[in-house]
Each structure stands twice: as structure tokens, then as C-alpha cells.
């Protein structure tokens, strides 16, 4: 009788299969018939390729994988020495009929028994069902093609690895089955996890589903579906007249992804979102998210406003952007600084041109195209609150105007003096709703040590997930 597994072993197998790590020969004891001359390998393909695979008109859609979604096509490839001759000797007009006849004999068996940890009998899949189609792909190698969603399982009460008589019931994921093919005294086995046809979305770098009314908004979907599966992704404003629909294709070998890049420049702000995915008319689920507002806020330190720099406190930007300083309300630009999305205790902007007015105007702009180059006319635009730009006037100390640098240069991100915590600010005149992670004492272009460390961790994790 096939040995059972503990609950811990079952969980570990599930995690390994979900993560894309194969679990070959998952039996906890070695079977005496296990040899290297036999092979059993599972492949998956998009569900809409089932008929083409059965007809033998396609063959390049298979992905070797030890997990399958219910909407996928499952292909079980088996081979043993002299298997081709044994199939040819069976009665029947087609390869499928002859292979099924071989499976009904005493020397060949194909089983799939659920890995369980309970006290009841394990369940077994009937792999000789009428839907089975078999193709010969080598001298002794055959592909067995199944519609995964139509597979049925029944109790294996006698422990022989075969499904008991009866109609069986649909497989409810998540389940793991051990497949074994035995022919003429040799055998091969492998585990297969069966997962629901589903998808979950996120918007990097966060785990939630937050998009902004900007171009190149990334939507990442993780799914167990077979690579090559076509999905239709819909974004709908909940209670708002906003809708976007795009088609995408599942990619990846060990891990499957469905990625979208959306231009949401003209989308409304502050709108709840419902994101749904469908495949071949089947709805794979819905997630709720938000088209977030582009918000910014900052407070000038009026006691520290010389004509060479301006210092700001409590800076918060919901998306990467610029702090732009002008020489008076209608004057020319004297400084810009790129600031990554986040919250900062203090930021200093060094002037790059002479300040001749009695005040400077600081305005927060959205880096719409994400190139970190300030473009005032198009496409970069001011952050707004209640329809007005997030901006404030900073009165300057009375002193002789100076030019801090004699170099001629294009306005770029300025390197500030050392940023430090300051005393309590005066009443702010620029406001916004702070979001994102707090980054204290930022320097340079707004990236502090914390961001560098986070980027390193994310990079290492990405490398670890690569195929």
C-alpha cells in the first residue's frame, strides 16, 4: 500500500509546487520497480490549445511543470523500454485505442493517487477516461492529453492506486497527486499539484493595488495558469464612469505572470477600482484597488531662507516629482530638485541662478513620464489640491542678490547641503495627504540609505525567483 504523508510533508510539497520547485519521485519510500529506464513527465498548455493538441496540429505550446490549473490542458508524457512495440501489439484502430487497451492489461498501469494526511482512504484519478487522447512522440514515448477540468477522482478503498467504480467527483483545488506509470516491471513517478484558475494583482513596489493617473502604470498578476494563456484584464471605476480593458498573455516557465503597462494619464484621481481577469470567457476573480490621488505637501522653514537655498520640512509626495523654485511669483526657474515618492523630515534646494526678487515660489510637480528630467510645459504638471497647484511663497531675507555659481549649466537636480531635522515649522501654505514610507534626512536625489537597502533586498529576491 502506498505510504501516507504527514500534514507537514503535504504542506511542504504544496509550497514547493506552488513555488515552481519540482518534487520528483515524491513517494516517501523507494519503490522496488523504480528505475532510470522509465520516465513520467507532466506538461501544461493553455486550455484553448486542447483540441489542437488532440488533433496533433500544434506541439510547441507545452511547458514542463509539476503544477496545473483546472483550466489548463494537461499532458502526461510516459516512456519505458519497448513501450512502442507493446502498444503496437494491442487491438484498436488508433494509438489512443491501443494505449487504452494496454492500460487494461496486467503488465501496464497508470495511476494518480492523492497525497493525503487524513484517516480516510486516498482519492485516485481515473486516467483511462473516455476523454483521453494519446499521441506517439517517440519510439517508446507517448503523450497522454487531458482536459484538466474534466478529470474526476474517487476513493481508492483497496489501495491499488486505481479509482474505485463510480462517476467520481470534480477535483477541488488545491490538491497534490502522485502519478505513477508502470510497464513490464519498470516504473516512473512524479507529483502534480492541481490549482484553481485564478490570478492576484499587485502594483510594484507595494503589495497592494494602487495605480496613479500617470503613464506606464505597472499591473503585475501572479497566476498558476499555463504560459501562453490569453487573459482579458478590465479596470472599472466603482461608481465612476471609468473603464479600461486590455489583453495580455501569461509568461514565465517556473512562475507565471500576466503583466500590463497602462497609460492612465487622463484617468480620474481618487477613484475606487475593480480589477477583473477573464480567460476564454471564464472569470478568474476580482480585486479591489484604487486610482489614487497625486498628493504633495511641504512646509518652508522661513527662519532659514537665504538667497542661496531654501529649506523645506515635512515633505511628502505620493509619486516621484520635482520641487521647483521660481524667482518671484512670475519669475524664471532658479532651481529644481527631483524627489522620489515618500516622506522626508527636511530637504534643501540649492539655487542655481541668481535670485533678485523679494521672494521665491516653491511648487511641487509630478514627474509624469518618470524620466527624472523636469519638463514644465509637457508632460510634467503640478500636484494639485482642490484644483490649485501645491505651491507656497517664501519671503527672503533682505540682502544683496548673489549668484551662487558662475558656471553655465542646464537646470538639473541640485545637490543640497546636508539635510537635518529642524525646529517646528511655521504654518504651512502647501498641503497634501502624505502617503508612502517615511524616509528621514534625505540627500542627493531623494534616496537615503533605507531605500538603497530596500532596493538591494528586492534585487536579491528577484534574482532568487528567476528561472
TrEMBL record:
Low complexity bias locations: 399-441
Spans annotated as Disordered: 396-443
Where the record annotates domain DUF7282, the positions are: 305-392
InterPro entries, A to Z: Slg1/2_DUF7282, TAT_signal
> What is the official name of this protein in its record?
DUF7282 domain-containing protein
